[in-house]
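Project standup — Tuesday

K.O.: blocked on the structure for the chain from last sprint. Re-posting the sequence here as requested.
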Amino acid sequence: MDSFFLTYYSVSSLIGLVMGLTMGIYFLSVRNSSGAMKFLAMLLICAGLMNVAYFISSSFIEPLAAYHRWMTVPVGLLMSVAPAQLFFHYPNNRWPRAARISLIAQLLTVVLPVAFFLISSIDVPLLYHFDGHYWDLVAEKPTKIVALAILANSVFQLVIGGMKIAVTGGRERWVILGLVIFLFGCGFAQGITNSLSRDGTVGRDVFQTTFSLTIVLGLFAVTVIYMNNTRDRTTFLAKIIGISMVTVLSVMQAISFSALAERTRAFDQLRMKEARAVHQGDFSQLLVRPLFLRKASGEIEYFAESGASDNSVSKPDSAEEVGIKEARLPILPFMDQFDQEEGNHHAPRQSDSDLQLGRFQKAKLGDDHLPYVSYVLTDPVTGEGYEVGFSYLAYRQYVHHAAAPLAILLLLVVLVLVAGFPLFFRGALIKPLMDLLGGMNKVDQGDLSANVKVRVEDEIGALGHYFNGMVVSIRDAQSKLKDYADRLEEKVQERTAELQKSLSRVQELKDQQDGDYFLTSLLLRPLQSNRAKSETVSIDFLVRQKKSFQFRKWNDEIGGDLCMAESIKLLGRPYTLFLNADAMGKSMQGAGGALVLGAVLEAIVDRTLLSGEASRHHPERWLKNAFIELHKVFETFDGSMLISLVFGLVDDDSGLVYMINAEHPWSVLYRNSQASFVESDLDFRKLGTLGVDSTIFVKTIQLEPGDVLIAGSDGRDDLLLQNPDGTETLQHDENVFLRHVESGKGNLEAVVDSLLSEGDLTDDLSLLRIGYREDLKVRPLDVSERFRILLEEARANYRSGRFADVVRSLEDAEVAESREAPLLRLLAQSYLRQKKFKQALAVAEDYAYLKPADTEMLYAVSYCAARCGELEKAADYGERIRLREPHNSRYLLNLARIYATKGNRSRAESFLEQVLDSEPDNEKALKLKEQLGSVAAN
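H.V.: unblocked you, prediction finished:
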């Protein structure tokens, strides 16, 4: 065949068509394949058909080969549709409606441009691209329309790929990203070089080389990525053959590119050497006979073709008669024009490389003209240029001799891969796998006699051994199961009897345990009672133990939470005792701690009610003594029983709360529809904690009419919350309870309902509510109307330092006989300013009885009593205020003076040390210490 010559582009196109068609047809043949695989098969088949067209155009030098464009245009447009649809369908089609509509729109971008191109290119000139070695249709406008359609599809594929990456997670996201990068990247490189080559910026050889390399690289990457991540049902051998094929073909692409490029360079080097020899008249070592020699003078020598001797030269009158009128030499005078009119068509400049010294391909094909390649050289002696032409067909034959073996080798490699691999791997891979699959199918059908023959001791052989062992295990298990089934009724009866016996024993033990629970709950019930009787203070509590039980006909609860309330009198004044406690442990253990606590506290209360001595204590001292007694009892358990509690007294008359919190959740004050914590720090460890040596003090809270104080165990905070995703979270935020108190408006039942609406209880829950004068809608005035003017005048005189006037006006009004607290306070302070300590003591005591929350006036009572010589009273009041503010230096210094006066030197020194620890430079403390030291020395 005189017109069939293989080139590098022929071999690379052959690689592309083999790779695309084989993998595309295989993907298309997969049964029940996904939409993504179908569109990938469409992409690969189109790529293969594109390479069929390019193989024809690069292998035949007949003008008819120009019509390969009638195949590349429709197939290329159809190939540009596939990537976007592939992205739509992998790994699943999230937007089926959008995919259908877009597919229709993309097919319109195929049909319309193809129709326009075919109609427009029926009667267009043909052009041979020497830099690409192929014939082409000169159809610029239709080509631009086709390029725009491909560009639109490429942009659309990038958009859909980006959207799918954004909404897809996990491994599939990276698969889509890889497909987008390779498909768009390769298509972009092909489109750019195609446009630049048609504009003449680069040669067509640049585009063809780019297309050849990127089509193989793209097909390789896409095939490997998809086959390693597809969910479609493919075979193991197909993956091996497919990936091996695209890998080997990619390597052959690189080999053919290198080998044929070197072949072209060798041709150039040989012809340039022969061109110099021809110029010098040496024809002895020519491998290829030259066609002509043209000198700078314009003289042309033509050499005989076939049948003539090496030295036969003819010189016709006109150069146009031998068809070399298009030859151009840049350094010669006749190089003024490069592009020229050819009939009615303007032949575009093909590449700047056409005008460089060295290899020069520019000759007309067709008609009666002889195609040639020429070399422009410079005479080293004269410096003049000359041109020597050789047959273009000689170049094609020279490259063909190297390309043909590569093409044959390529076909043999494909044949070996497709037909040889199944034979090569039959014994080592295919047969063992088929045996293993056959054994699995038998087992799946219930045949447990299957045994896989292990042919090769490799990984598949190991799987065969494992499979055979698994079948034996299943067979043995089935045999045992059959034996069990045959004896099922007998076994059931035996197991039922054993189970019934066990259940009877469990029920017996449970009855005993429930009996213990019931007896313990009976013991706790009288302690878990509200015996408070007060007209001003209301007590309510709610207890829900986590452990519930049934004993015979009784249902009850048991746990470690305890609430108690009692009414007592101290120094003749009525108080309401309250306690909310949580014993460590669940059910019986917690109930035992609560039982001990309730019994001991009940004994303390009974002693207070029955013993006059026990009731002659101020509330602070009584609380301290009771707390210490309780703590000592639980210390005997050696740390195995701990109790957290809130324990206190409410002054029924004044509403003053005295309380101690031992590592219990903070109490909540509900006032004016707002809830807040009354504590801010951890004051004491739990009852029974060993090694605790901290100062005991009593916290005071002045309740106003309408106030509610709520104490509760930690069950109020430990709620089990249900998350929207179905998971569970344990809440530990104590501040949430404030919101529930406000939601329930301080009512315990409503508070518990609010808690349960948010989550489930995980622990015992107990709440204790203290309300003070809730029936009063308006807060009572501090002073009656008839004394208001007197109070304002007395305050004005006091601020002006006229203490005598204050005393006189208040004594005349007989304030000392009234219960007007503000006036009593002014009178006591005025007596104290006048150093009338006895009168001040009497009035201050009356005031303290009315307003026990005023710690400063308690200090005034202690101070005045000490100045009047009533040291016992002074010490009593001093200890009382110390329990409220144990770190106040002024109060401690007062107690130190009192005990020093009483002769209790050790206690006085103890208080002085506390003062000096916090205030080392306190002059009064230092002076008192010096006085104690001098007394001891005497």
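K.O.: great, moving the ticket to review. The chain has 25 helices and 25 strands. The radius of gyration is 54 Å.
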